[in-house]
Amino acid sequence: MAGYSLGDSTAMISLNQLVLGYQGRAVTPPLTGHIVKGSMTAIIGANGTGKSTLLKTILKLQSPVSGQLSFTEGRPRIAWLPQLAEMERQFPTTVYDVVCMGAWPARGLFSSLNRQIRLRVADAIERVGLTTLSKQPIEALSGGQFQRMLFARLLVQNAPLVLLDEPFTGVDSQTSDFLMTLICQMHQAGQTVMAVLHDNELVSRHFPQVLLLTQDHFHWGDTAEVLPHYCKSSINLALSA
After folding, report:
1. Which of UniProt's keywords are assigned here (predicted)?
2. Domain residues of the chain, as ranges?
3. Which fold has domain 1-76+160-166+192-241?
4. Per-residue pLDDT in tens (0 to 9) along the chain, 241 residues
């Protein structure tokens, strides 16, 4: 199936017969389409269909099996939220220090934080409701607090492209709603957002575009048109089990 149509919009990322996989073994069909600048796309599908692999391929953490992935106007700054299971929570650092890391891509690892950056960090921590915990070690945080901290780091980065890998895993519904509000604010500010998600109701309420990945095919387009295909594929998968 053809990818999402550009219309009058500008592509940020173009996929041309892109096949994703591990160690040369394909897990997706050839993907062709565009991620539009300023768009907000949910990536959905069963486990093992290449959702996280797509994000890591965009980040150049993995290589595709074949095909091409290109940035239309050059590689932008990218803010990435990995899965919680991939995060090291025992590292001896504080909430404030982790949020400050959001300034590294623009300032450099060894640059000192000027007053403007420190104010931005303090504002981001306040926006996620962690001001009173800013000096706490990260190992003392709950799952929801830890995710709020990572979102504060995203706010400091303020990158044109935001990649979120299962951002609501391990948090309660109240925190999920709060984080979803932050994601919508990023989108409204003009950032391009791609998120791996499993909550169809949340996708239908908030995400204008969806990329559905299965082992044999993909559907990419407006949410109202794509989600029914996911429901159908889920039913077929259950019947064949």
Report:
1. ATP-binding, Hydrolase, Nucleotide-binding, Transport
2. 1-76+160-166+192-241, 84-159
3. Rossmann fold (3.40.50)
4. 445 544 446 899 999 999 999 888 999 999 999 999 999 999 999 999 999 999 999 999 999 999 999 999 899 999 999 997 667 777 889 999 999 999 876 555 545 677 888 999 999 999 999 999 999 999 999 999 999 999 999 999 999 999 999 999 989 999 999 999 999 999 999 999 999 999 999 999 999 999 999 888 899 999 999 988 776 555 444 334 4
